[in-house]
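Write out the 3D structure for:
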Amino acid sequence: MLRIVPRITNPEADRFNMSSRFGTLQQWLDWQESLHWTSIDLGLGRIREVAQNLQLLDPPFTVITVAGTNGKGSTIALLESMLLAEGYTTGAYTSPYLYRYNERIKLTGKEATDAQICEAFQVIDNARGDISLTYFEFATLAAIWVFKQQKIQVALLEVGMGGRLDAVNLWDSDVAVITSIGIDHVKWLGDNREDIAREKAGIMRVGHPVISGDLDPPYSISEQARRVGAILLQAGEYFFWETGKAGWQLCCGETRWIDLPLPALKGAIQINNAAVAVTVLQALQDVFPVTEKAIHAGLQHVVLPGRLECIQHEPEVILDVAHNAHAAQQLAAWLADHPVRGNTYALFSMLDDKDIAVVAKIMDIVVDGWFVAGLGDIRGLEADKLVKEMQLEPERLSRIKAFETLDLAWESCKKQAKKADRIIVFGSFLVLSEFKVIF
């Protein structure tokens, strides 16, 4: 049985002194970045105490929690689009953001306003007392508080890192999702797929469905489901799909959908993500029924910036947030399947906690020339060091041009690119957010 908590009023804001610490959203964010002793502090103790003070531990909406190495944002976007097409009210909490902090907290498809987020921050600040919170914990509490205020029906929560100790896991999921398992965040999650999957499987709950979209799932996913008593719906076992030129079909338990439209999001992996999303909705059919018409509409109208997003033609400019090996493989495959008449150039940078060499090796097969730049972030690398970390063969280094900043790299790339060429901007969410400013 799914846990559907009756909707209640939300009077707790009146319990706190609402004198404002800051007047703008940016002031709040700048302060939060330095409030806690470290930017990442996995664990649920501190956030649980503050959530309890705010009466947020038992929220009046259904919770869908999405973990995984890649595909989390796409799966949430697909779920949101289909639920909205059916007329339900939703809240979506995702991270990181590309261009505006408000992208993290969406209410029925629209970004939360500065005023709504600042009000949430003030309530949280007053409720926390002397408890220190990280930037991510503040955001997570703000999302839940805003969702409760707005009386949404379904919350879509993206795990920030791992699952078991991530702030999002404070709230029990009615349906848990694990999109894929790849090697990322090794320092915190482990250096192999079994350990990483075990951390992500921490979002499972007894008696509730967990949808696993990984086609080669680590054993620890089914092991954790048995241990917890969760209902595992595994891709390739419980649900299957086949694709055609114009559409695809999905078999999910005893239900079959035929002639489904291809998702508006590009890339073969999006069929996988869409299959996961539809399977989630099937698990919720008793409480939130979604018609086939709404599924079709949601697939056709879903929008998610930064995923094979084409923003210019002649030359073609494509943005993608691929920042680990698994995502790079998907990006390289799409580029290979969609060749251009000219050259493909990469405008590229990555953070120092990523496996730069592996990503560069995967992408170098489909890239004719690299324009590498430093990033304006404490985790960024200077361009020369980034080139060294790419570890390409000596004979390939002549194809790399290094620049101090992204705007300098872009200016040089623009001068070299012809109308028939393609420019792929990728490597990090920060690459895309900086590029948006200079484009």
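The first helix runs from residue 25 to 35.
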